[in-house]
Write a structure and sequence with these properties.
Layout lengths: L2 H10 L3 H7 L9 H9 L10 E8 L6 E11 L4 E8 L9 H16 L4 E6 L4 H10 L2 E11 L5 E10 L3
Parallel strand pairs: 3-4
Antiparallel strand pairs: 1-2, 2-3, 4-6, 5-6
Length: about 170
């Protein structure tokens, strides 16, 4: 993810759908570090520290940055990591770009990094994302009660989903 992508994504961060599905407070132009930190935050309790890789999702047709996908908390010893994704540009949501990018990140995690288990968290209310994750092969693992702090100060549940890979 390059600086120009980060600034573009920050300018899109006040979208009400993103606020609802990502659980963030919109980013101001001077909050680049907060945005980077958010893209790297771990929400799975069993992954700490670990390497983080964040890729921008770039359209092949016009080279436009529309979102990002991250592989974070990479634990090669245990073969696990967490993935995260956001299609920041409203115009490109619901068109399969997120699914395609996530599949590529999964392939990279399993076949290049040698991981065997990927997890993610999602708000239980985000049914569109849950259905997309299930189509890819993620399965519901557990519900983390009151585990995410919203900008409003309210704690909400997060659904943990997992995808296993065997060689």
């Amino acid at each position: 993810m390059e600086d120009e992508h980060i600034h573009h994504y920050m300018s899109l961060s006040n979208d009400p759908e993103l606020i609802a599905t990502m659980g963030w407070k919109p980013f101001r132009p001077n909050e680049k570090d907060r945005f980077i930190d958010f893209s790297r935050v771990l929400s799975l309790p069993n992954l700490k520290d670990g390497k983080v890789i964040v890729f921008s999702i770039i359209l092949a047709t016009n080279n436009k940055a529309i979102g990002y996908v991250s592989i974070k908390g990479i634990n090669k010893a245990e073969g696990r990591a967490e993935v995260g994704i956001a299609i920041m540009d409203r115009e490109y949501r619901g068109k399969g770009y997120g699914t395609e990018a996530l599949k590529k990140a999964i392939d990279y995690a399993f076949n290049e990094l040698g991981l065997t288990l990927l997890g993610l968290t999602v708000f239980p209310s985000n049914q569109r994302a849950i259905q997309a994750y299930e189509k890819i092969g993620f399965r519901r693992a557990e519900l983390l009660k009151d585990s995410w702090l919203l900008p409003s100060g309210e704690y909400v549940d997060m659904l943990v989903m997992e995808l296993s890979h065997t060689f």
